[in-house]
Amino acid sequence: MHQELDTIFRKHPILTSGDCLACDVCCRFPEATSPLAPFFANDEKAMAICDGFAPDAFPPGDYGPGDVAFLRRHDCLYACPAFEHNQNACACYAARPWDCRLYPFMLTYTQDGTGITLGLDGYCPVMAERQATPAFSACAKELAAALDGPLLPDIVARRGIVTNWKEHVRPLAKLTALSEQLCKTSLGLARFLPSTAEAMAPWFRAHAGSLASHTFSGLWLWSDLFDLWWTVSYDCLIIIAQGDGDTFMIVPPLGQGDTAAAAKAGLDLIRRIDPNAPTPRIQDADAESAAVLEEAGWRISETSVEYIYDRVELAELRGNRFEKKRQMCNRFAHDHTSTWRAMTSDDLPAALALYRRWMEARCAAHPELIYTAQAEASFRCVARALREADMLGILVRILEADGVMAGFTAGYPLHDGETFHVLFEIAAPDIKGAAQTMYREFCRELIGFQSISAGTASGLPNLARTKESYRPTHRPISATLTPPLVAPPST
Ligand code: SF4
Ligand code: SF4
Predict the structure, then answer these.
(1) CA distances (Å), 235 to each of 10, 52, 200, 410, 428, in order?
(2) Ligand 1 pocket, 126 CB below 6 A?
(3) Region at 138 (left for phi over 0; alpha for psi -120 to 50; beta for the rest)
(4) Protein residue with its CA nearest to atom 3 in ligand 1
(5) Between β-strands 451-453 and 419-427, what pairing exists: parallel, antiparallel or unpaired?
(6) Three-state SS for 296?
(7) Residue 12 Cβ contacting ligand 2 at under 6 Å
């Protein structure tokens, strides 16, 4: 419980509330997309909202361990929604999350994803001056022992506070037990992180020409909902995901190695991580991997398709078959003065507000759980894509109508060098023709790519109809495979 944390800081008062009240570093950020925005575990979100925190500071629903708060603009900076500018203080101080209670101490993954360290953020000017004192050392030592001991279950439950490696965080102590829980190094795994993307790149590249999810960015966007780990076995990249009591391979073994042997190794890992995994499986297998796995006894339990288009066709929208799309684009052009431009970090609040409006309209039209849960879960992926676009190589474009954001879209190139994957396209529900105009403009801009991938329809019939309406040139399969049946022991 956080009282134990507070007791440690009271016992070692290296930083006083007076220090913080006189400082202007915490709770304010130079950009809306700051990677230091506070993380709230699901119970902390509920408590903060009871304490007056705006509910729309988070995506709706509880998915994964919690959410990072959306920052609000104030003058030329962005701040946590609970920050009171006049008082220079936190409006929900008693209910502030562990992320804020720990600061300026931080928990970060090591660069190679095999460990977690307790560190000190070099941005705290007061601690920078006091870190050479015996009191600081005693505090750091006691804190590390508590976080890696009695407080470990609390940290695992709110593991979103463990952030990516950061150069400005000075490592103080490795937390061995926590590292094992969250990185699973004793199983030969490492945490799937942006800092490990380079190490995984050869296997992603070797699997070029396959599906949109077979990319680092495509998988990382799900990291708010799933814990992800990776390893290399039989010259294949194996990626394991765990979320909501489910452990599985989120993609087939990637690369040109021995797919069947790597799949077996991945299955063993799933069983060691969670011996009771209800549906160990391989998701999003391309046709070639699925064929190899079927030969090895795996069984296809489900298939969907990805939608691939000819980019030039969508950029030009010629002929009768695109007449309706053309009409919608013409209507938008007739009704509005438009601007097509790259997103900046200042666009984030408006984009998140637009997603919320889009989601509410969609959920009103399709109140079935499959649509609402999908839209809520996707909010996390969209927010991460917008926040981390530069780091992930994601292009984000904004369509404005009469100076107001009418939509935004984003995507990234696939490893074949010919296909661009459009991740999402969010248009204002009340602006006719915005969605069609965005898609056309994006395709016009993406000169150099032959094809556009729109991914799968995520099992949503109306999305499948929309994707079909753009006349795909081909539809590669994406298969889910379940493990080979184990023969019963002979009697
Ligand atoms: S940067 Fe350090 S001193 Fe300043 S408010 Fe934050 S914790 Fe307090
Ligand atoms: S919850 Fe309070 S302490 Fe934490 S970032 Fe927001 S204003 Fe600052």
Answers:
(1) 51, 52, 11, 32, 46
(2) yes
(3) alpha
(4) 20
(5) parallel
(6) coil
(7) no
By CB atoms closer than 10 A (0-12, 13-18, 19+), residue 36 is: buried
Cβ pair 340, 27 in contact under 8 A:
no
* pTM reported for the whole predicted model: 0.94
Distance 348 CA to ligand 2 centre (A): 20
| Spatial separation of the C-alpha atoms in residues 204 and 411, rounded to whole Å | 17
Q: How many residues are listed for the chain in this entry?
A: 491
**Structure tokens, 87:** 């008082």
**Cα 324 to ligand 1 centre (Å):** 57
> Each residue's pLDDT tens digit in the chain (491 positions)?
678 888 999 999 899 888 998 999 999 999 999 999 999 999 999 988 888 888 889 999 999 999 999 999 998 999 999 999 988 889 988 889 999 999 999 999 999 999 999 999 999 999 999 999 999 999 999 999 999 999 999 999 999 999 999 899 999 999 999 999 999 999 999 999 999 999 999 999 999 777 999 999 999 999 999 999 999 999 999 999 999 889 999 999 999 999 999 999 999 999 999 999 999 999 999 999 999 999 999 999 999 999 999 999 999 999 999 999 999 999 999 999 999 999 999 999 999 999 999 999 989 988 888 889 989 999 999 999 999 999 999 999 999 999 999 999 999 999 999 999 999 999 999 999 999 999 999 999 999 999 999 999 988 888 899 999 999 999 999 999 999 987 666 65
